[in-house]
């Protein structure tokens, strides 16, 4: 397999290995927006900044009149944006090719990294290629899979075609799991490299458990609390969650379901399960306390590229049940540090949920092992690997080939 570093250039690459880089990061979502792409990109950007790199963050203006704070730790460039239909709290960037061309002509970045494939991302890709800048990208959202949940399944192939065309125009596309790498490679995506995601084990931890919070949910010290965290939307497959909860209540009428998050399906879900607690969006310490105060985490989504909530729940000491997909397939060993159901097998998912609900000792043992697994997912090493890929991309500008970096193993306890 070819590498991005031609043999004749290795000494040059090694000489530059510790040089700080000027990195332009283009993303159409960023905190305080709450979603997996925004939160993980913030981790990467902050991590690269701490490692001494010169960061230029390009993102949509999130509200009218927003300006960059005078004391911002790194350069931010705000561009126009529009609310995403049905998600008024999220925005997509408008094309900004001319502005980015002028910006990068005035001061060329060493490398451009594009996190999202929307109008802003596409225009950034075109501008970077026109200027001969090295470009990497992320595959972070299964937009093609989403189409099946919104009555536009006929668009799945065209959307996949657009994503393939987008990413194949970059030197490298980073993906969070080996399973996704294989899936995309089979679909014609090229130059894929696995750079997984981490979890903040100092924020998400079992010691944040709060009996006061459980009392707000109507749960006593011994009552079972089942939790799911994420967007309340069709693509999250939440009907399976409600089926599992109903089955659990057949053996434990006092079991409580807590759903953390918001989205277009909230009213429908409340009508279907009025006894559930809908906690809305939570952040920071408050979110961490919600995780830690539950007893069982159910995550039925089949549209994730990774699924940050899986790692966050594991770090919080929760037994996680998910389909054998995305982060769960990568991190969980069934019956040891979590539980897996075959992909799209709702009956198996429900059976596994009932089994875990009925066995407190098993939940406790699995939760302890889940925490140990999460402790291996430190962000520092992941950001270092991300940086390594950027350096390879930068030095391959004239020699497009496949990136080969040592595979990083994630031990599971």
TrEMBL record:
Keywords: Transferase
SUPFAM superfamilies: UDP-Glycosyltransferase/glycogen phosphorylase (SSF53756)
Entry-linked Pfam families: Glyco_trans_1_4 (PF13692), Glyco_transf_4 (PF13439)
Protein's UniProt keywords contain Glycoprotein: no
Signal peptide: none
Domain (Glycosyltransferase subfamily 4-like N-terminal) ranges: 34-202
Record flagged with keyword Transferase: yes
MF-aspect GO terms: glycosyltransferase activity
Top-rank lineage group of the source organism: Bacteria
UniProt-listed PANTHER family: SULFOQUINOVOSYL TRANSFERASE SQD2 (PTHR45947:SF3)
Protein name, per record: Glycosyl transferase group 1
